[in-house]
Amino acid sequence: MIIQANSFAKLNLFLKVYGKRPDGFHDIISIMQSVGLYDTLTLESVDGGGKNISITCNDAGVPTDEKNIVWKAADIFSESIGLTDYNLKIHIEKNIPVMGGLAGGSSDAAATLIALKKLWKPDFHDEKLFKIGAKVGSDVPFCLLGGTALVQGRGEVLEPLPEGVHAKCPGGAFLLVMPPVRVETGPAYDAVDASRIVEARKWNTLTEEYRTIRDGWISAIRSGEFAYLFHNDFEAPVFGYRHELEAIHTHLRNHAGHAVMSGSGSTMFAWFPLYTDAFDAKDSYLPLAGEKVVVALPVGHGVRIEGEISNI
Ligand code: ATP
Known about the structure:
By secondary structure, the chain is α+β, with helices and mostly antiparallel strands. The protein has one domain (1-312): Ribosomal Protein S5, domain 2. Helix content is 36%, strand content 29%. The protein has ten helices and twelve strands. The strands form two sheets. Strands 1, 2, 3, 4, 5, 6, 8 and 12 form an eight-stranded mixed beta sheet that branches. It starts with a strand and ends with a strand. The structure holds adenosine-5'-triphosphate. Adenosine-5'-triphosphate (ATP) binds at residues 62-63, 68-70, 92, 98-106, 108, 139, 185, 263-264.
């Protein structure tokens, strides 16, 4: 059987980073949004004994061995169902920039898990898929879910918003500006830590803050006016050592009226309540340093199965 799946990029419309926890992860509160920019994965289960996962990818910068998060996803999934004898061929066609703050790897992993559930048909509910996803990576549970969600913990605690951006503001679009720059997440967190004295947060104060953020976002999305709430704690610390990104941020803000970075960078974006305005802004944008510009609609899913071919 062959399965093809599209895995969608995510934007952080809002991202606050709190102190480092004893387990080494940081607590975050974020509003995540899936957008219509996606990779395409083709998975095939072929005959052959033992355990074999072979990965190919159109982007030479993406690892094709066990360092690929898709490999990790298949490995953890197979272990969780006690499958030791399988032979998988996976091709990844990348469109989402690598290390662009768009969770490209995590969304490939989510697509792999959903495709493997269809391929191997284990007897379990989606709840287990989310648990497996959280083991694979912090952003994987959101990518399994998609749409608009509030995220907390290290990224694995999700609250989906049924009245998300895709549902309430269907005529709007994001303008994505993607610099040809990769930002590693680890050093970006170090820069956040170094940039301020983070107070030890008590969980109840974080819960109160979560509720305030949540209520503000729900009513802003309902009104269709939410760009004024865009925020990212990584911006100033990352711009401190990646000056070219600050220049692009200013350039986009001057062009679109506002700008915010996604994740730890490097992608920046702006929101247009009318998608035609987003296309106009794309056409008139003059790149500063080779950045790629695309218009992406908000979507309500993180993964979409495109096709299945059986019995060949
Ligand atoms: P996030 O927004 O979750 O911080 P990102 O979009 O900035 O993630 P990714 O594109 O997911 O970053 O890549 C992060 C790292 O993962 C890179 O070092 C890359 O080589 C590695 N990687 C492993 N598997 C993949 C994959 N399938 N696609 C992209 N990168 C992958």
